[in-house]
Amino acid sequence: MPVPLRRFSQNWLANDELAIALVGAIAPREGDHFLEIGPGEGRLTRAILAHPVRVTAIEVDRRCCEALRELSAGLGDGPAGLEVVEASVLDFDPKQLHEAQLRFVGNLPYAIASPILRWTALHHGLVVDVHYMVPADVAERMLAQPGSSARGVISVMIDWFFEGSIVRRLGPGAFRPEPKIDSAFVRLRPHDPPACDSSAAHRRAVVGAAFAHRLKTLANSLRKVGWERPAIESALAAATVPEKARAEELAVGQFARLIETLPELSP
């Protein structure tokens, strides 16, 4: 059995009982197709495969892929199935699975949790739900609501496509090796994003600029990036945002109006 490696940011679940409890919260249904990110030694994978479901496991560590393929071979012709893909999830396109809907799950490599969340948002149209283990501080930022000092770019991105909640909080002892931080098992369920007649690139530019200078007002942050005062004032009015508001005060619907009204900046 492989051991966790620091270079892959691997902190695996410490025991089968915990994996079974987490899968109980996920509540697999017969015929579900799970896309598991970073399964590692496969503890969570085995708990999911105790149900009549399919799992596509995306794993970059070749040692773990070999162990997972042995697990797959041992399933035989039973109702559960496992496919192993040796790749970085950030390079993987889930559309190639030709599934209309997938359940995303994973104990995320903490060093790349934020890029994986952006990748997940990119593929939101395929998502039935998401269950990810992430650092507790990342969970706080993911789920931060308008008015919270923790709200930032990642909060708006998640809020744009999903509603989220923390299923369970875990201390370092739940993993091996023990990380120096607490963790949270987070559930995301998709909802319709706000109507916004602008490109994804423009949306990212505006939201990124809004939070680029957190100690400044939203208007001043946007002006620092290059928008002119009249355009900013018009956009704030369209979004019903007070002149002195900061970015963390805005709901996603207000961001949508702001983005639609602001002109795209020239490269």
CATH topology of the largest domain: Rossmann fold
Distance between the termini: 51 Å
The major sheet is characterized as: 7 strands, mixed
The SSE string, one letter per element, is EHEHEHEEHEHHEEEHHHH
Please identify which CATH superfamily of the largest domain we are dealing with. Vaccinia Virus protein VP39
Assembly state here? single chain
Quickly count the helices. 10
Major sheet: arrangement of strands: 4-3-2-5-6-9-7
The domain tally reads: 2
Low-confidence stretches: none
Rg, rounded, reads 20 Å
Strand content: 15-25%
| Shape verdict | elongated
Helix and strand composition category: alpha/beta
Architecture of the largest domain in CATH? 3-Layer(aba) Sandwich
| Helical content (DSSP H or I, runs of 4+) | 25-40%
Mean pLDDT over all positions: 96
CATH class call of the largest domain: Alpha Beta
Number of strands: 9
